């Protein structure tokens, strides 16, 4: 089995150089490729199929919670972007500008959307007149552009794919409820489909989205101890409504401003999947979004009946799972390594001896366990094994997060954790921007969120010592 | 029933002003809205749901024929666009240029993709090495931009949504087979899902896609007698392969150029649905892509048991069709008009008298027919009625097309048809560009396609009188 090692050996071990390990997996598992457009990536079929599964599940959840999909233009005229002061300050420095259309120089520049609040506002201002028109619960799937200086595939690219929900409501209470509802939709998706445990909480004022009165987030922890913001949900209150004059007539005939939210999740989730679950043999895909859930590798496939049996098994399994047979003329060991690299949750081996015994061998990607299963039982065993793998991956990720979550009561401890232990730091905070800035300056860690589930680490702010009961998750982040 | 008339009266009758009728429907049925971005439209939920149904069916057909989805960057560097001579000549005059990213002036302009051949070529040149890597069958769903001077919602907009398939093959034979296969996939979709009959054929050299050696098309006829190109499929031969150096090693170790195709269908299909099926009461949606297939309108809904029965029927029907109950406090007549405008294929009326008789009334949008059906039978009646409606709509569209298809043997006849009868003109053509240009100049009609199913109209070119056996469909077109 020289050959199957070769593929694996080309990956840099995770502990040696995590960034290089990440890049190696993206290349070897054929997830993305560079293009000649600076900072933009090509999403290859295997990764795009993951995105389709993510999108399919989220879209179902969005529709079940009453949302409708729409499509807004990809361009925003400069004047429209400038209508909300905080928003334009936040985004203008990082947008791409179209200045020429065909052979004509444009009189007003168009930015390629970094996010579409302004377009939704303009549309809602026109279409919402009375309380009968509320709420409006719209979502769109599209790509957006942010002119990034340094980029990494999936994690930070000039263009990325995402969903952006934009809703308007009659009251502040309703918009707040929606903001939290959609955060929970994201959290459930990430935990139940991607097997990634998340911390749910609110961003500090400093880390809020440009124009929001409240930003909620789900934060995940990667294998190298760095945090990743997996999704955000924003409550804008009436900030945009006032700037865009989005008003409705209430039941008493009085003009009121609408209350607005937005929420989004991006292709960086694929980066999170790699960095939460992967190992030195490659990807480990959460079964529920894996493009291939079961790969059938025929053993001694030149022997009579083997390929026929593999095809027969494929036909049966295709009714309950996403399945592929690899009957190419590569050596089985080579195939094993290839599908380990691609993170396929279950490998099914079937050879002449198995056929004799009316059994197959199932090998789990997550823990390497081999199980012999009667051929008569595959329809029940495979779905339950996929669930087991999901649960085991979720628990494993949770254990890593727990190992890499520490509490600090003073700056000494805080710095020591960030530098030596890595991971999340739980620490009390007084609420002052000055302390938040100082923590970042001295440790490199940013506030990740004020978790909904508060804990008491101490009585005083980890930075200034002022009395407080607010606990915050901190960490270095992607 | 004054109220239900009001909604209808606001539409311009089709025969009075077809263009205004089209615009009125788009507004009244809430399909699209204008934005402050010149030439770009907002696709509203009802139209977007149609697009999702179109996309879902096509995506399934693409995958069944072995294609995989990917995502390419939305930007193309100017140098890359210029690599294939014909291609850049065709597209450069109508692209939007990004010249600034963040605060920096770009050293090389980026165009917003008008189509992505060049990016796919660059990627294939890197990833295809040997005959083992072929064919590559990729598709992407995205939006593209073409800087149009005059625009109309769905039919011609600066930005539009589409699919673009891009494939590479070992031989010319295989790429030709793929080009025709995908044309047929489109034709089947348009006929079987949208109930729009199409003519399948090849474009003349003049009407070919920039860079192609052969372009195939499906052409549909609108209610006003103008043609609409519903989809195209192109064979590039080795044109791009030579420009981008896309080579592979064949079985004999020899370097060969790949043979390439591309094919696309766009949101203009929604325009076609409006203009093929609609009438003076509004849209008529083909049942298989209608967002709402059955709308339940409760009659005398304040009476005991009516709303409960409506809800019960909805629960039952939702298992077999896309169904909605309108229990708002509008008058039934008003609701009738509203769902006629929205083109919902079946209206189900249920009131106290119906409940007494254990029946419901089904009203067909396509021909106005009313049918009383026992409540026990709705699970069988509704699906078969939806099929009947589909078939009837297809046949009605075909009849209109046949009525508006004429043959011309000389230019007199040709001009007379275009000016007075409108519709398709079948006429013989010698194959010379000069005659094609002259026909356009004198009649305004362009060659729509050289149909696969040839007919003999006469022995000689309709324009120059030269002997020929090539028959062409001509017409004014959107």
UniProtKB/TrEMBL annotation, chains A, B:
Q: Which Gene3D superfamilies match?
A: Anticodon-binding domain, Bira Bifunctional Protein, Domain 2, C-terminal domain of ProRS
Cell division found in the keyword field: no
Where does it sit, as one GO cellular component term? Answer: cytoplasm
Which InterPro entries does this one have? aa-tRNA-synt_IIb (IPR002314), aa-tRNA-synth_II (IPR006195), aa-tRNA-synth_II/BPL/LPL (IPR045864), Anticodon-bd (IPR004154), Anticodon-bd_dom_sf (IPR036621), Pro-tRNA-ligase_IIa (IPR002316), Pro-tRNA-ligase_IIa_arc-type (IPR004499), Pro-tRNA_ligase_II_C (IPR016061)
- Give the EC number: 6.1.1.15
- In which compartments does the protein localize? Cytoplasm
- Write out the entry's keywords from A to Z: Aminoacyl-tRNA synthetase, ATP-binding, Cytoplasm, Ligase, Nucleotide-binding, Protein biosynthesis
GO molecular function (one): catalytic activity, acting on a protein
- Domain (Aminoacyl-transfer RNA synthetases class-II family profile): residue spans on this chain: 17-286
Q: What class of enzyme is it?
A: ligase
Claim: Protein biosynthesis is one of the keywords in the record: yes
Reaction equations catalysed = tRNA(Pro) + L-proline + ATP = L-prolyl-tRNA(Pro) + AMP + diphosphate
A biological process from GO: prolyl-tRNA aminoacylation
Belongs to which family?
Belongs to the class-II aminoacyl-tRNA synthetase family. ProS type 3 subfamily.
User: What is recorded about the protein's domains?
Assistant: Consists of three domains: the N-terminal catalytic domain, the anticodon-binding domain and the C-terminal extension.
The record's function comment reads: Catalyzes the attachment of proline to tRNA(Pro) in a two-step reaction: proline is first activated by ATP to form Pro-AMP and then transferred to the acceptor end of tRNA(Pro).
Task: Relate the assembly described in the record.
Answer: Homodimer.
Q: What is this protein called?
A: Proline--tRNA ligase
Q: Which gene codes for it?
A: proS
